[in-house]
Design a protein that fits this description.
The chain contains seven helices and nine strands. By secondary structure, the protein is an alpha/beta fold. The strands form two sheets. It has a seven-stranded mixed sheet, sandwiched between helices. Strands 8-9 form a two-stranded antiparallel ribbon.
């Protein structure tokens, strides 16, 4: 099975711009990517980064400047092996949750995101075509029905949380076990519960350059 980890190496994590500047977003995105790559490897698979620009990495890198859907569909078109797609910003992903993704024998295995997206997928019939963004989980269910393919959904909080918005950083600090949580704390982020609900605040005296 090929395991693709898509990565926007050109301008990552743009929706975190209210809390991170450009250099910080790049650094944090690489921390997230490294964590996912390491977790895929620990789950017994060889990750392959699908990047928008060349990057240095300790695993194979396939460069495709196109948007996510056509880039992945190009891989599916030329593959005779099953293809898995695991997004690079799944800061809470663990080996056991990825194993739960890889194990089912269904033609299509989907791990939906909290907002209706698709955070991880296993595609065993490469005639299937992905269509990300705009409620992609429902789109992928419909595509599987159109192709008469069996589908299994992996109900996993740790795979459902992707790091897109500043509010998502709460989940990293609450549940993260690795370098992403450590990076945020080193950058001055911490949980604030004074309002009764966890939010993230940042000590502006902290600077990632000091770490």
């Amino acid at each position: 099975m090929r395991v693709l980890v898509p990565f926007d190496s050109r301008d990552p994590n743009t929706r975190l711009s209210p809390v991170l500047d450009s250099a910080e977003r790049c650094e944090f995105a690489n921390v997230l990517l490294d964590g996912v790559v390491e977790t895929v490897r620990a789950a017994g698979h060889a990750p392959e980064i699908l990047a928008t620009e060349p990057i240095d990495a300790d695993c194979p890198v396939r460069v495709d400047e196109r948007p996510l859907s056509p880039a992945i569909n190009a891989v599916l078109t030329g593959s005779s092996d099953p293809v898995a797609v695991v997004m690079s910003d799944l800061a809470l992903a663990t080996v056991d949750r990825l194993t739960a993704l890889f194990e089912p024998a269904a033609d299509i295995v989907l791990a939906p995101g909290l907002g209706g997206g698709t955070n991880a997928t296993v595609i065993r019939d490469t005639d299937f075509r992905v269509d990300y963004h705009g409620g992609s989980y429902r789109k992928h269910r419909r595509e599987a029905d159109r192709c008469d393919l069996s589908v299994e959904t992996v109900d996993s909080f740790r795979l459902a949380v992707d790091i897109d918005e500043p509010a998502d950083l709460v989940e990293v600090l609450l549940h993260g076990r690795g370098d992403a949580a450590d990076w945020l704390r080193g950058a001055g982020f911490e949980l604030d519960t004074t309002g009764g609900r966890c939010v993230v605040r940042r000590d502006q005296s902290s600077n990632t350059a000091d770490r």
